Amino acid sequence: MKPETHPVIPAPRIGVLLVNLGTPEAAEPKAVKRYLREFLSDRRVVEIPPLLWQPILRGIILQTRPKKSAEAYSQVWMAGGSPLAYYTRRQAERLAGQFGDGVDVRWAMRYGKPAIGDMLRAMQADGCERILIAPLYPQYCGATTATVMDEAYRTLAAMRWQPALRTLPPYHDDPAYIDALKHSITASLDALDFTPDALLLSFHGMPQRTLELGDPYHCQCRKTARLLGEAMGRDVRVAFQSRFGRAKWLEPATDAVLEAMPGEGIERIAIAAPGFASDCLETLEELAIRGKEQFLGAGGQRFAYLPCLNDGAPGMAMLETLLKRELAGWID
Questions:
Q1: DSSP state, residue 10
Q2: Tell me: the pLDDT tens digits for 198-222?
Q3: What phi and psi values does residue 87 have, to the nearest 5 degrees?
Q4: Which residues contact 162 (CB under 8 A, 6 or more apart)?
Q5: What does the radius of gyration of the chain's CA atoms come to, in whole angstroms?
Q6: Residue ranges of domains in the chain, CATH in brackets
Q7: Of 98, 105, 36, nearest in space to 72 by CA
Q8: In Å, what is the CA distance from 34 to each residue of 86, 126, 141, 192?
Q9: pTM as predicted
């Protein structure tokens, strides 16, 4: 029997925390500046020594880029916030209750809000003694998956009573992921009023140096593309987007491919971004808007951007499958 002075202890629960990259809180320069300061100060994201990088970041980039990025965000902002926040929240909401009454499903952002640390502390306070952290990155990269876990471990390091922790591994070649992509992309292609000459898969780019240092990201992107092409029974092309700075990045670059395709006789294309679990600035503005302008400006005739898995049925079924597998032993 507990003494009357014993603090209230919530019933034991299991937590699932979906984590995505991050987003500003508003499509405004000040909010974008706060987001970029946090994002671009992460040593996993920019591996230049801080003594060299911070003067560039604070003296040039944070003085010029926020306004331009805010304008880009304003073109894709939704009533429910940024697309990335909206779809990540929807994914968590749709998974609620799928693993039993004792499982608490929440979401967080690595940069911005809701913050990983805040959510982990709240889940632990609500009785989550076991937590599965699920970085929503199919392909592993030090600048994405690893930095999520860095932040989670920093939070746990400050806890006296730590919850047990599991993590969702990369799922770039998981049959459930490939099948979800196949069904989603096929449905989008079937809904078009034209037949594309090519299907281009655009993955987020990373500096070439990361591959040379042993990061598996490039290889996992290529494997995803190969398996998806085989599952769909068609050829696919691969490119890498979002180049930044003067360093050499993974190639071929998406913008260069889009501009070259019409000269190769490819006048009608569809483009998908299978490395993104949810649509975001990089898909809806960089690909669907600017990518279309680049392709049509180079002589292309028809262009279609195919949406990410988002909170659609194929993607939700995949997430439920993957998470149930990682929760084995914790839930019946």
A1: P
A2: 999 999 999 999 999 999 999 999 9
A3: -75, -35
A4: 124, 156
A5: 21
A6: 13-171+316-326 (3.40.50.1400), 175-305 (3.40.50.1400)
A7: 36
A8: 19, 30, 24, 39
A9: 0.95
